[in-house]
Design brief:
The chain has one domain: Sufe protein. Chain: A. Strands 1-2 form a two-stranded antiparallel ribbon. Helix 1 crosses helix 3, helix 2 packs across helix 3 and helix 3 runs parallel beside helix 6. By secondary structure, the protein is mostly helical. The radius of gyration is 15 Å and the shape is globular.
Length: 145
Amino acid sequence: MSIEEAQQAIIDEFGQLDDWQDRYRKIIKVGRDLEAMPEEHKVDGNIVKGCQNRVWLHAELGADGKINYMADSEAMIVRGFVALLMRVYSGQSPDDVIATPARFIDELDFGDNISLNRANGLASMVKQIKFYALGYKAILDRQRS
């Protein structure tokens, strides 16, 4: 599934929920369903800066040239947002990650309906995801030349 297809699936899934309490419950459920991050990746170097709650984000470049992201958070709602970002960006090429904004956040008004600190943290998570993609793109470009 492409990044755009994954985003549209999230928009369709959450767009059916008119009440923000229902959306919050759904985000928390998505967070509960997130695959556990291995403890060896829960290190200080993987903590996303700018988040109110601790968020760990780890990325690995697969042999297929796709980035596999893993993430976790101690806060359930934040873990839900992390899970949504994993759905969108994990398993994608660095070029696609770099080129595609997380439009589902704006289209679903997530940034406007969470605290300013959480909105800033969400932006920091997206920034870190893109940062990993830039690093892996540079590695792949060097290997190709």
